[in-house]
Amino acid sequence: MQSQAIDVGTGKQLFVDSKFVESSAGVTFAMNPPYQADEPVLMPDEAWERRPGASYGIYSSILKDVDGRIRAWYHVRIGDYRSGKDEAHVAYAESADGIQFTKPVLNLFESGGTTRNNIVIPGKIGGSSVWIDPHAAPEFRFRNQAKVYSPPQVWGHLHMHGSPDGIHWKLTRDLRLSRGGWDTQTVVFWDPPVGRYAMYTRHWFAQRHGTAGGNLNYRTVRRLESEDLCEWGNQRIVMRPDDADMDTYETPVPLRHEGPERPYGRVPVDYYGALVFKYPDPDGVYIMLANANWYWYDREPIVTVVRDDMGVAREETQRIYGPSRFDARLSVSRDGIDFQRCGGRKAFLKPGREGSFSSRMVWAMPHPVPMGDELWIYYSGNNRDHDGVVDPAAGRHLSGIGRAVMRLDGFVSADAGYGGGELVTPAIRFEGTQLELNLDTGGGGSVRVELQDHLGRPIGSFAETDASWLCGNSVRMPVRWGGRTNVGELSGRPIRMRFVMRDCKLYAFQFTASG
User: Fold this and answer.
1) 344-369 burial by CB neighbour count: b if 16+ within 10 A, else e?
2) Is the separation of the CB atoms in 481 and 464 below 8 Å?
3) Which of 327, 230, 216, 226 is nearest to 266 (CA)?
4) Tens digits of residue pLDDT in 427-484
5) Host H or E run for residue 375
C-alpha cells in the first residue's frame, strides 16, 4: 500500500479515473452521457439572422457570470462563403434561467444596412471563444480569441479582444503561434497548478503546415502555455487519432509517411478541436470533450470552393467522405497533458435524430454551467455536415444551440452490480468534520463506508460494522456511523476509505466543515 497520503483538503474528488482506487473488487467505471434536449435554446430568429445564407456556426460560448446571468456569445454566419463577401459575427444574448434567452438591440455595428442587431464583435471571424480572465485589469475582464478572415492583411491571424462588460470589445493582441493551424475554437484559461495560461487549439499533421511528411493529413489537439497571453510555448499534443482510432475503419487513401502529398491521406476520425475545462474548480481535474470528425467512406463528389492557407479561393471538384458527422468524446487528465479516454471511447454528446437541428454536427461549447444539482453543457448543433450536405430529412438548413443536462460530478461513476463490490482508496489526508458522497443507489442499492488507518486497519467506531446503510440519490449525502457524522478527530491524519457497495453508482466524495 502507498505510504504517501494524498492531500484532499475540503475539495470535491471525482471517481473519473484510478487516482482514488488502491484496490477494488466487483466495481467498474462507467461513463454517464447527459440528456440532450430536443429543442435548441438559441436559434436564428431575429430579422438580421434570417437573411439568405444565414445560420449559426459552431463556435459559440456560454458562461455563468457572477451575478447569475447566463451569457451567450454566439457565432452568426451570413451569406455564401464561396463569394468571399460573407460575414461571420459574434452576437450576444443572455438569460436568467439558461433556457429562455433575450437578444438585446445594441446598435453597435452595421449588418445588412442596419445597426438594429446584437452584434458585439463584427467582421469575418471563426473559432470565437469568450472567457473570464482572473488576472486581467477590469477593462479586460472578458477575453475573446478568434481567427480572423478579413481584411486581407490580417487573414489567418489569431486576434484576442478584451472587454469590461462582454459587450464593448477592444483588440488587444495579435497572437503568434507555432505552425500547425488554429482554425478552430481555441480555449484559454488560467491554470493554477502551473501558474500560467493554458491554451488548447488545433494542430494539423500535414506537409502544407510543415508539420509532417508524406501524405499525412489529420487534425489533433495541442496544449500551449503562456505567462503573458502573447508568447506561447511548451507545446504538447494532447489528443490525436491513435492506433485504436485508426483501426476502426479502412479508408480509401491510407497514410504514407513518405512520398507525394497528394492525394491526401485519410483517417477514419480526427479531432477538429476540443473543449477543455477544470472541474469542479480551477484546481480540479481536467475534463476534455474532444469534437471528433468522422469520415471514412467515399461519397459522390461535390463542386465546392476551397481556400488555400493564404486565403486564395478556387472552385474544385472534391471527393467527399462519409459520414462527415461530428460527436464529442470524453477524456480526463490530472496534468492537462496526458488524457485518458472514458466510456470505452463511446460518444458523450451525439448528433440529434434525423431531421433535427443537430442531426449532423454537435460541438461542445466552453464553460459548462452549474445549475442547482445539475451541470448544463451547451453545444452548437447543425443539420449540415462538414462537406455542406444538408440532412434530407429536414428539407432545409437548420442550426442552433442546444443544452445537455447531467448531474453534478456525473461524468464517470464507480459502479457496483447486484452482487456487490468494494473499493479501497489510497491513504488520503483531509480537512473538515463531515464526509459527503455523491451517489445513486436506486431503490435497493446501498453504500457503507469504513474508515481505516494508513495501514488498512479499521479505526475505532468507524468500522464497517458501525457504518450506516446509505440509500438514496443525492449529490451530497452525509456519511453516518449510527447517529454519528463528525469525523473531525481524524482531520489531518492519513486515512483510507473502504466503500462497501451494492447495486449503486458512486460519483464523488468530499469532506466539508459541516456536521
Assistant:
1) ebebbbbbbeeebbbbbbbbbbbbbb
2) no
3) 216
4) 999 999 999 999 999 999 999 999 999 999 999 999 999 999 999 999 999 999 999 9
5) strand 374-382
